[in-house]
Amino acid sequence: MAVLFFISHIAPLTFFYFLLLSSASASFSSPTADTDLNITSILSSFQNLTSFSSLLSSTSVASDLTRRQDPITLLAVPNPYLSIPPSSDLTRRFPSSSLGDILRYHILLQYFSWTDLLQIPPSGVLVTTLLQTTGRAPANFGAVNISRNPLTNAITIQSRSPDSASNATVLSLIKTLPYNITILAVNSLLVPYDFNLMASETRPPLGLNITKALIDGHNFNVAAAMLAASGVVDEFEADEGGAGITLFVPTDGAFGDLPGSVRLQSLPADKKSVVLKFHVLHSYYPLGSLESIVNPVQPTLATEDNGAGSFTLNISRVNGSVAIDTGIVQASVTQTVFDQNPVAIFGVSKVLLPREIFGKDSAAVIPKPGITVQPPELSPPPENSAWLINPASSPQGFHEGMNSDGQILRAQSCIVVLYCIVLYLLA
C-alpha cells in the first residue's frame, strides 16, 4: 500500500513537469514563415522609410516581393540618406524601369539575422540579388559582396566587381521576421556594375493604346468596350512603366459562353472593376516566361487593391499550352494579341471569374481597398531606438520585441497546465 501511495502522489508531479517542459519548448519554436508578406505594409510602421517604400510601390517591386515565397533580406535606404547624393541623383536620373532594377539589387535572396551578419568573414561572402533572376544583369553582376570589418564589425555591401565604386554600409537592423525576411537600413543606394548597358535603362517607353490594340485584334470587342466603359484601361496604361503588365483578355466567344447564372454586366461598378483587374498581372511576361514560370500562383492588379493572397491566378503549362486556373474556371491562352516589352496581351478561352466574387463562398464581401493582413510585430519602431547612431549593434528593445510572442505562448501553456491539474484533483 505504501508503494501505491507513493506512486499516486509522484505521478501528478511528474505529469506537471512534463507539461511545463512541453510548453517551454513550444514557446521557443521557430515561427512559421508568412508567404504573403506585404512589404509596404511592413515598412509603413517606419517613418524614416516612407520614401523608399514609395519607390518599391511605384516601380512594382513591392508586388514582385508579394509573389516570392523564399526568405529574403531587404536593404532599405532611410529618408535622410535617400534625399542626398548619390542616392538622390539616381532617383532623379533614371526612369522607373531602371529604378526597379536598382531596387531589385537591394533584395538579397538569402535570410540574414543580425548574428549571421556578425559572423561574415572579413573576406566577404557573395550573395545573389533579385536582379540576377531577371536576366538583365551581365554575367553574374546581379550579386553583391558582403564583408565585415573585424575591428569595428561594420558591414559593407558592394558590387562584386573590383572596378565598381558603388557601396553601402549597414546602419542597423530595422526589423526581422525570423527565417522569412530581414530589413536592414543602409546609407546609400547601390548601383549594379555596368548598369548603363542594361536593357532596363535603354528600353523605350511604349505608350500603347490597349483598347485600340484589342479592337485591331478583331475578336476582343466586348473586352475593349468593358475596359473603356469602366475606366480601368487608363490605370493599365499607366502601369506600362516599371515592371510592365500582362493582360489576359477573353475572346468575344468566351463572353458568349458565360452561363446564365453569371451576370457580369449586372455587377456593381466597383466589383466589375475588380474582375477586369483580375485579368492583369503587374509584370511583363512574354509567352516563353509564362510557359516556364517558377511560381505558379501569381497576384493580379486586383490583389494589390484587396490584399495579399486574394484574387490570385494559378498559371501552369498543360498539354503544351499555358493554362490559367482561378479556382472555379480553367482557361487557356489561345493567341498572342500583342507582345512588346513592357506590355504583353494574350487572348484566353474563358472569362476569368474570381472565386472571391463568383465562388460558393462569395457571400463574403470583397475587402475594402487598403486593408491588408498585418504581419506580426517582432521589433519596435526605429523612432524609439538609436539605430542610426550605432551601426554595429542591434536596435534597442529588439530582443524584447522578439520575446513578446513567446511570453504570450508560455502564459497560454501555463493555463493549460493548471487546467490539467484541477481536472486530476477533481477526478
From TrEMBL:
Keyword set for this entry? Answer: Cell membrane, Glycoprotein, GPI-anchor, Lipoprotein, Membrane, Proteoglycan, Signal
- State whether keyword tRNA-binding applies: no
Membrane-topology descriptor = Lipid-anchor; GPI-anchor
**A GO cellular component annotation in the UniProt record:** side of membrane
Supply the PROSITE patterns for this chain. Answer: FAS1
Record has Membrane as a keyword: yes
Q: Which Pfam families match?
A: Fasciclin
Report the superkingdom from the record.
Eukaryota
Q: Pinpoint the FAS1 domain residues.
A: 36-177, 207-352
InterPro entries from the UniProt entry: FAS1_dom_sf, FAS1_domain, Plant_FLA
Where is this chain's protein located in or outside the cell?
Answer: Cell membrane
PANTHER family the record matches: FASCICLIN-LIKE ARABINOGALACTAN PROTEIN (PTHR32382), FASCICLIN-LIKE ARABINOGALACTAN PROTEIN 4 (PTHR32382:SF0)
Q: State the similarity comment.
A: Belongs to the fasciclin-like AGP family.
The protein's name: Fasciclin-like arabinogalactan protein 4
